Amino acid sequence: MKNVPEIFGSLVFNDEIMKKRLPKEIYEAVQKDVEQGVTLNLEVANVVANEMKDWAIENGATHYTHWFQPLTGTTAEKHDSFISPDGKGNVIMVFSGKELIKGEPDASSFPNGGIRATFEARGYTAWDPSSYAFIKEGSLYIPTAFCSYTGEALDKKTPLLRSMQAIEHEAMKILKLLGNKSAKSVVTTVGPEQEYFLIDKNVYLKRPDLICTGRTLFGAKPPKGQDLDDQYFGQLKTRIIAYMADLDEELWKLGINSKTKHNEVAPAQHEMAPVFTTTNVACDHNQLTMEVMKKVAEKHDLVCLLHEKPFEGVNGSGKHNNWSLATDDGENLLNPGNTPAENAQFMLFLAAVIRSVDKYQELLRISVASAGNDHRLGANEAPPAIVSMFLGDDLQEALDSIETGSAAETHKKTVMDLGVSVLPKFNRDNSDRNRTSPFAFTGNKFEFRSLGSSASIADTNTVINTIVADSLADFYEILKDSDDIISDVMMIAKQNILSHKRIIFNGNGYSKEWEEEAAKRGLANLKTTPDALEHLLDDKNIRLFERFGVFTKAELEARYEIFMENYCTTIRIEALTMADLVKKKVVGSVLSYEKELSEIVLNKKNLGITCELESSLLEKISVLADEMSVRLNNLESVIEGIAFINTTLEQGKYFKDNVISAMGELRETVDELETLVDSKYWSLPTYTDMLFSVL
Ligand code: ADP
Ligand code: MG
Q: Which of 186, 190, 257, 276 to mutate to test the pocket of ligand 1 (most atoms within 8 A of CB)?
């Protein structure tokens, strides 16, 4: 039996360790830095660094690394050992405050979207004390932010921290206005549910498309897919149980609250959900989780696929971003209490979220846009590309009553409820689950379900925090001089719910009717990444981010360039891999079978024996082979055409309109050939081989 409390956080330089090891005044200085942003002086940093180093060495580390999150969406690290020559041919182990606080990696090979002039390759990493340092594979990892020489954010953590600060500031202003005297701070909390696939390593190694692009570029529909619904919450296979147990242990050691595990809808698909925590830490933990998922898989001769759509025709993987706001004294600001319509504070925060989601639909869509996720959104398995909200029956009733004014009489009673920090529990089970909604209220939090499985959750949460801060700030301006705060709050809630109610949709988000209805309501339906990204630099978005100091215009422009380029590069690699695979694998398989068939046909004809089966099969395969040749040539000339396109937007559109469709056509022919060619000649493992590879 594992002693979980003992294992948990054993590789983390957490609060308990700091309290134990640091002198009291140093520990308090670190706390002040985390809570109030009071920067540590070098003397204090030296003590912290030294203690961190001693602790890391005791736990087997020899190196340290500043760990950061460049705009590639993954994490980056460069390791330095603690050694320092003592001048007598030996070394001592040293780690200074300066090294803890600041790093200067050569940043020239990280995406910067034109921000950094090429002559200035320096970038800075800066310690983020709000996320604990930890040990992994012999190194002490220090979570850091990453910026350019001139101070622009080149990473995903910096804007996320800025957005957390913005929403905290605005939420605190509102709470004070409502008479809350106990809350000292407000944090946004996030629990990201992570979906993934596990397949056997031997099958994986025979699929160059999985190796190069993370998804299968070919593969005929298997006879058995997810049709029987026998996988969802199904019994776990022995190898999967062993994997999940190992995964839990590794995550726990890193202080990650891995909580729930189960089989998902598609064969070979699974999910892990952690207990929610502060957004910044949740984001770091999710990055680590994805890494650990892959590494633990290797140990079990498995491969963990985090691509949004590894297999066509079966569900892809997403990440549900559960988001809420809480005060430092434990009040969840999205908890409706028993009588939401009478809970002015809740109604105001709810109205803020509704207004924000409606006003900045495009930004939410952009925050989940990627080449991989384009295969899911709107494809009858994930929320549609149209952003809308679902509130559930109870809350809808509350809104309706506010709208009709029937709750108006009870406002006065609400005064008594305000300032009470722990509200009575809302009966959560009544909030009916609508799985097709992108942005659903689920009892005391919102669940944004459009994220792709491989994405960093930083972008989405940066957007959610900032747009909600925007509404809260606007509400504050109206309310700050009110002398009847409760009725004014209710008035604002009512006005905003009325003017933004087009974003609320409680029906089936997958249906054709919704697409039509949404168009009538004037909601955005940005189907692909280029369609969405086009809006990133809309005036209203630039104004929003500048208002709260989350992104400068230059930082946004850089992101636009990087995200579009990333989209194009991803598809270019897929297109090249596809053409290569056809030439190196598929053509050979088809030719071998054609050869065998034609020999039989010839022999049989010579002998005067009927050969209907062989010749009709040969005919069918030959026709498809010709079609494959035409379509391959087409794909190759479309790939060549990329060189002639200039602007970023045109490139994005070219990939979307020309490259993807050329790939789709070629795939169609190859998949049909796969159903006809004898499996002894088909050199790629089939969908059945991959999806049912773990016994
Ligand atoms: P389901 O799959 O039914 O949505 P799960 O239990 O798999 O539910 O996931 C729910 C997620 O929501 C968990 O990660 C949980 O920690 C998180 N969550 C719960 N309360 C909050 C909250 N107040 N803020 C943010 N996340 C939350
Ligand atoms: Mg779930």
A: 276
